[in-house]
Amino acid sequence: MPDPIWLLIAEDLQLKIESGELGRDGKPLPTELELQEAYRASRHTVREAIKWLATRGLVYTRSGQGTFVRPRVDPFITRFVPSLESAQAESAAFGVAVRDRSRMPSVSPPRVEVQRAAGRYARELRIADDEAVVSRHQQRLIDDLPYSLQTTFYPMTFVERGAGRLIRAEDIAEGAVSYIEDVMGVKQVGWTDRFAVRLPDANEVAFFSLPDDGHVAVFEITRIGFDESGVPLRVTITTYPTDRNQFVMQFGQVPAD
């Protein structure tokens, strides 16, 4: 029995995707109407072909926008090693880890905002809902592909007490944690990490080029840093799409890969 027409169309589209003829990394496929005309097929047949491609991770669909070629991703492994030094300059540590794997990292300049700490961030920082916080938001890419988003919240009182660089839209090369210790004498002596898996929000769907049907979730890691008195000095929220990130936790004497 010959293969159904939709499968022949799907396999032909697969070849064109893999060869790059139809583009890569989030490029749109031809519309359903264009595919119907190109293959002289019905709408139902074209949709079956697209469904076959989607189940194999070759394309994804966004409601009202069309179908797109899924970016080819090389999963990156983030290692969690218990060490106070590992948090001193996290952006720098990210760059070193990526380059050690012969890949190219990039981190966007921080976007800085002052906002009220209502709800979650007030609870995490143990401050009142009407108090102000400084948020520093950055995008992280590997080989020009988005891999994570990170936002850190600090009490606005830190700026008032002399840590003025927190509110500037510029990188703090030595790390904000070290900077706060240098200018304020507030030292981070430990932290807690909370891991969660959830559906991406609209901003994450757009930035990471994810399907909007929830097929790809995101890891969300909330890190709360504490000073010597047990008071939170920062809350860092980092999100990682699950289709391109893996995590390894190591402790003690572990042989190199």
Task: Give the domain tally.
Answer: 2
- Unreliable sequence segments: none
Q: What spatial form do the alpha-carbon principal axes imply?
A: elongated
CATH superfamily (homologous) name of the largest domain: Chorismate lyase-like
Could you state the order of secondary-structure elements as H and E? Answer: HHHEEEHEEHEEHHEHEEE
- Output the CATH topology of the largest domain: Chorismate lyase
Mean residue pLDDT: 88
How far the N terminus sits from the C terminus, by CA atoms, comes to 49 Å
CA radius of gyration: 23 Å
Structural class: alpha+beta
- Percent in strands: 25-35%
Summarize the structure.
With 257 residues, the protein is an alpha+beta fold. It folds into two domains: 5-69, Winged helix-like DNA-binding domain superfamily/Winged helix DNA-binding domain (Arc Repressor Mutant, subunit A, Orthogonal Bundle), CATH 1.10.10; 76-249, Chorismate lyase (3-Layer(aba) Sandwich). It has helices at 5-19, 32-39, 43-55, 90-100, 120-125, 156-160, 176-184, 202-208, and strands spanning 59-62, 66-69, 76-80, 105-107, 111-116, 132-142, 145-155, 190-198, 218-226, 232-241, 245-249.
